[in-house]
Amino acid sequence: MGEKIELKVSGMSCGHCEMAVKKALLAVAGVKDAQADHQAGRAEVEAEGPVDRRLLIEAIKKAGYEAS
């Protein structure tokens, strides 16, 4: 069973932003699936096992958005 992690994300304003965040999260080792919602200001990650939340936040920041 995978682990679900929800993150608050700010700076997204459109579908393109959502795809950029999703792509950044999918590049993190252990992430099986990711979804981003600019209207809700959040992203949800499904991981295969334990994933360090800090790695996910760092990936989002490198994509140009803020996360917590």
Report on the structure:
This protein is an alpha+beta fold. The protein has one domain: Alpha-Beta Plaits (2-Layer Sandwich). The chain contains two helices and four strands; from the N terminus they run E-H-E-E-H-E. The chain has a four-stranded antiparallel sheet. The protein starts with a strand and ends with a strand.
Key attributes of the depicted protein:
32% helix; 68 residues; single chain; 4 strands; Alpha-Beta Plaits; 2 helices; alpha+beta
Q: Report the CATH architecture.
A: 2-Layer Sandwich
The count of strands amounts to 4
Beta-strand percentage range: 25-35%
Provide the CATH topology.
Alpha-Beta Plaits
Rounded to the nearest angstrom, the radius of gyration is 11 Å
- Tell me which oligomeric state these chains represent: single chain
Q: Helical percent range?
A: 25-40%
**Global mean pLDDT:** 96
Overall 3D form = globular
How many angstroms does the end-to-end distance come to? 24 Å
Largest sheet: 4 strands, antiparallel
SSE pattern, N- to C-terminal:
EHEEHE
CATH class: Alpha Beta
Q: Structural class given helices, strands, pairing? A: alpha+beta
Low-confidence stretches: none
Number of domains: 1
Count of runs of 4 or more consecutive helical residues:
2
Annotate the secondary structure layout.
Elements: E1 3-10, H1 15-26, E2 31-37, E3 42-47, H2 53-62, E4 66-67
Antiparallel strand pairs: 1-3, 1-4, 2-3
Outline of this structure?
The protein is of the alpha+beta class and 68 residues long.
